[in-house]
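Notebook entry, structure prediction.
Reason for the run: the old model in the group folder had no record of what sequence produced it. Starting over properly, with the input documented here first.
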Amino acid sequence: MYPLLKKFSRLAFASVLAALSISTVSAKEITLLNVSYDPTRELYGEYNKAFAKYWKAKTGDTVTIEQSHGGSGKQARAVIDGLPADVVTLALAYDIDAIAVHELVPKDWQQKLPDQSTPYTSTIVLLVRKGNPKGIKDWDDLVKPGVAVITPNPKTSGGARWNYLAAWAYANKKFGGNEEKNKEFIKALFKNVPVLDTGARGATTTFVQHGLGDVFISWENEAFLAQKEFPGKFEIVTPSLSILAEPPVAVVEKNASKKGVTDVANEYLKYLYSAEGQDIAGKNFYRPRDQKVAAKYTNFKKLDLITINDPLFGGWQKAQKKHFADKALFDQLYVPSNN
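New structure, fully documented this time:
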């Protein structure tokens, strides 16, 4: 071989090796931990696969998303205590605010994404057994003697706090703002609760699989899921007044930065707002924010909804302090049913 050609061949071979080396280095394997609330298992099981496929096509990197699920308040406490979440997808803003107090999440986390960082919404409905044997029509029926009500514990479950506040709003409307009457109503309701599970999925299991209770105060998505998994066994009762439940999301920047996955974590949450992300939310019975996508899902009924920022509640900080903090109203009003 001529010296010039020989030299060219060596250079070409070296270039190929370099290209292969760069390709190998640039294709990374990334793991994210999503710490979520109880009923999102199916949602994120599907969404994680879609995001991994999208990210692989976009960057060549392989991303694996691990999940942790439990009552929202309990999950927030776990992150504060050291669970190394890269992202949190919890049931309500107060729980992420609690994480932000410990400087794991920026204090302005709600401004990082559209709609106050809530890519989908839900609400609270009443799930009853086939034929509605107790004739449940509205919140009033839940305080009647002999009606067993299933709801999780507001001290550990975000869904349970939405449940409680929806019932409080109904009582407030019924009694014309008489707070003492509101308290009596909530006390009577919880007197009919035989057991308080720590999270919404546990409460679903208690009602749906264990057969305990006449009515389940449920996330709307959980109620639809129960109907899907047990056809013909349950009916959804839409109350006359409910609450707009807005489950938020955030990057746990302190943890993600340590692992060097901040960019991927941000993109993971942003993709929830994409057409595909919104469609996956709708398929899993969450209400998409994107109205074009939402229009596809005709199973969602229009409801009269109060919001957490209504003057009745004044936002999550005030609602938490008044109703759910230690020795606040829930602690004062709840008496276990066997007492």
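Summary: Residues 27-121+246-294 form a domain with the D-Maltodextrin-Binding Protein; domain 2 fold (CATH 3.40.190.10).
The old model has been moved to the deprecated folder.
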